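Batch 3, record 17
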Amino acid sequence: MSKKAKVSVNPNFKIGEISKRLYGAFLEPIGTMVNGSMYNPNHPTADEQGFRKDWIDALKEFGIPAVRLPGGNFVSGWDWKDSIGPKDLRKKHLDLAWHQYYTNDIGHDEYLQWTEKIGAEPMYTLNLGTGDINDAVYNVEYTNHEGGTYWSDLRKKNGHDKPYGVKMWYLGNEMDGPWQVASWEKDPKAYGVKANEVSKAIKWVDGTIETAVCVSSSPDVLHYPDWDEKVLRECYNSVDYVSLHMYQSAAIGNYAQFMAAARYYEDYIRTEIGLCDYVQTLCRSPKKMMLSFDEYGTMFLPQQEIHFGREVYIEPGTYYPQHNDREYILHDPNNMGEMYSHRFGSPILSALGNAGVLLEMLRHADRVKIACMTGGLGTAATTSAEGVYITPGHYTYLDLLRYGQGVSLTPVVECEKFDVASFAIDDNHKSPEQKDVDLIDCAAAFNEEKGELTVFVINRDWEEDAEFTLNVSELDGYRFDSHYEMFSEDLESNDAAPVKNEETKADGTVVTAGLKKLSWNVFRFVKD
Ligand code: AHR
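Prediction for the assembled complex:
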């Protein structure tokens, strides 16, 4: 007999407004993401700037709302000023973060113009590693100032008459990471002071912008959350968001660890909200700090040897890009080669992993206002050398983007639960035990303007299907519209796509359905 599960949703139990930026993506010139997928001047679809039009069209149609760019670790050693103006005068540099040559053929203006072409909001990461306050001030002046100054007139001369109007500025990337060029790992207070000064100054250039300050790059690092508090004390009043990153890993083939990932995100979000509110009180500030999850992912990794006494100590050689004997690579934009990806996933599980994180964000929609999926652009539309294709992750992402709008509601879940014992995948990924993780993962979005209520449900159970009841009470004037499900018997298959479940029954707004194991489900109610 299959397990029983029930979810109740009441439109009066509101969590908060869902920000459109929750469905953003993260872009960085690693491997072929920029040189190959974005920029490929010999591609049959290349436009006048060398951008692949097939990818632009696919992303535009998908409707990616926001992209955080141009990195990532990359930005901490990058000088944006070397990347503007005539291409033949731009400087080629070593990118120490990813051991590659960076030609600057794709520079500051190209990144912003490409996001204009895909119709997304650019969210810009400033270099607060090697970059100084003037680099940041000149950048915002070049990017956003109307004209009449050296930097804003230079933008015009370089072909973009109108200001780009970038609203969101990140004050560096993972500034606590020892892998970062010019890391502030050892001095959170000094980074907090610098972030404060940069944030103040760039807001003096453009009073409409928002800023995000880096806190610990992961809840796995040992200085978390102490490092975060030290930073925030110095800049609480001048910034608007904390910038959070999280890559939750599971050992290959361990479904319990993988399907419990969102619980680790929940712990992280709760701690960070608590910390921000604590510093708010310390600062006697009226401002509530919001959360920007500007890099996230859930993945399988191969089990590594764990070293006693080396908890979350990151040796130079252990971090992926930092093998000191690695050759510097020049990525040929016209030769896609191997894509940078987290290779150990299954397409359907990757889709459920990212969707599970987004459901967690929806359940904290009052405080999590930005989220950027790592690899999100490739999830929306995957590129090969020839063209663009769709994977299961496209569908979960699109469902959330389309229907996860309006106000997030509190779902009450009654179901069986599972435990996860503490585990370590490598010295950098160590996860405490979790008790009583729901087998049913759920979030609900009420879009009153459009007259739609959508309930997203993941059946995390990797062993059996569930008999499911969804009770949406006090939803006067609405009727059940549809239940779409996506699952795959073959976890390695790329072919799963949502299908309407015609057997799902509704009695008013009480719906009964079967939920396939490891499945994605979208229940929709519409106004009569
Ligand atoms: O996504 C790759 C890297 O992961 C980013 O550059 C960095 O911010 C994070 O550590």
